[in-house]
Each structure stands twice: as C-alpha cells, then as structure tokens.
From TrEMBL:
Protein name per Swiss-Prot or TrEMBL: Apolipoprotein C-II
The keyword Isomerase appears for this protein: no
Organism phylogeny: Eukaryota, Metazoa, Chordata, Craniata, Vertebrata
Any matching Pfam family: Apo-CII
GO BP terms in the entry: definitive hemopoiesis; lipid catabolic process; lipid transport; lipoprotein catabolic process; positive regulation of phospholipid catabolic process
Superkingdom to which the source organism belongs: Eukaryota
Organism of this sequence: Seriola lalandi dorsalis
Keywords: Chylomicron, HDL, LDL, Lipid degradation, Lipid metabolism, Lipid transport, Secreted, Signal, Transport, VLDL
Record flagged with keyword Transit peptide: no
Protein family (similarity comment): Belongs to the apolipoprotein C2 family.
Signal peptide range in chain numbering: 1-20
GO molecular function: phospholipase activator activity; phospholipase binding
InterPro entries recorded: Apo-CII (IPR008019), ApoC-II_dom_sf (IPR023121)
GO CC annotation terms, alphabetical: chylomicron; high-density lipoprotein particle; low-density lipoprotein particle; very-low-density lipoprotein particle
Length: 100
C-alpha cells in the first residue's frame, strides 16, 4: 500500500511538473507573437508621431505666408538679375564692338 501511495504521488508530481513545463513554452510562443505585435505597434506609433509633427510644421509654415514671401523674393531677384544682366551685356558688347 505504501508503495502504491509513493508511486501515485510520484506520478502526480511528474504530471504536474510536465504540465508546468508545457505552460511556459506556450507562454513564450504567445510572448513572441506579442513581441512582434508590440514592435509593429511601436513602429506605427512612431510613424504616426512623425507624420503629425511634420504636418504641424507644414501648418506653421503656411501660417507664416512663406510661399508669398518666396514669390515676392523671386520676382524682385529676377528683376535685379535681368537689369544687371542687361548692363553686363551692354558692357561686353561695347568691349567687342567699340564705337569710333
């Protein structure tokens, strides 16, 4: 009877230990899937944060009316360059064809 009790206890302990070994493996598989999901979620979060920050910067730039300022600067610069380009053209022309 004692041997039967000892064998029963040993089998029960073996079954419990075997079951406890199986649970961490399943937990590791779930954790790996959870890790990949966590990484993907973090990447999505960083992407969304970057996009929202860039959108905020664009909105602040539009608020400063930089496009209008850039157009005005281009117009003024074009006028100045064409004026000085014409002066340079006249100087070179008179250098090659001097008046007598």
């Amino acid at each position: 009877m004692n041997k039967l009790l000892v064998v029963t206890v040993l089998v029960a302990l073996l079954a419990l230990s075997a079951e406890s070994f199986r649970v961490p493996r399943e937990a590791q598989e779930e954790q790996q899937q959870g890790t990949l999901t966590t990484i993907a979620d973090k990447v999505r979060g960083l992407y969304e944060s970057t996009v929202s920050t860039a959108s905020g910067y664009l909105e602040s730039v539009k608020g400063l009316k930089l496009e209008e300022k850039a157009k005005n600067l281009y117009t003024d610069t074009s006028a100045v360059v064409s004026t000085y380009g014409g002066i340079l053209h006249d100087q070179i022309y008179h250098l090659f064809y001097p008046q007598q």
